[in-house]
Amino acid sequence: MTSFVKTLSGLSLIALAVVLVSAQEKVNFSGTWVLDKSQSDMSQLMGLSDDPAKAQNASMTMVVEQQGSNLRVNRTLKAQGEERKEIHTYKIGGGETTNTGSRGETVVGRAFWEGNKLAIVSTITRRGPLRDISAETRGVWSLSPDAKTLTISVLVNSPRGAQQGKAVFDKQ
Length: 172
What we know:
Radius of gyration: 20 Å
Order of helices and strands: HEHEEEEEEEEE
CATH topology: Lipocalin
């Protein structure tokens, strides 16, 4: 085989590999997900770290609808005798979307793929009596191979500093 044919064959294999990797179907996170508190570390992010009993009695459910590049997340948090709900929508790989948080704050976010993981980066702005207060969040969603466990690794940068957490959800 001449070196030209070898080079052409090698380039063809590389091109085929790129096409096959690009054609892989992205993960679909659709479903009803319930927080597994025993596997999660979210009490600090939910504002419940000061009282372990409150964190233990808290619960979170998410209903996720994903169709193509459209993602809708309906989240319900029950804690301290209070129920908070929020619905966020995203265009995966698209531009920014603006949503309203469970306490009326503005949430501007964008969602994009990082391999087979979904990253959602948001700026949360809450109106304060003297000035607005903002926090940056980055959540990376990953699905277990059997598609029954959703893990979201969270990093929050706020005026209180950086906080990390992990939420593990079981599919219902």
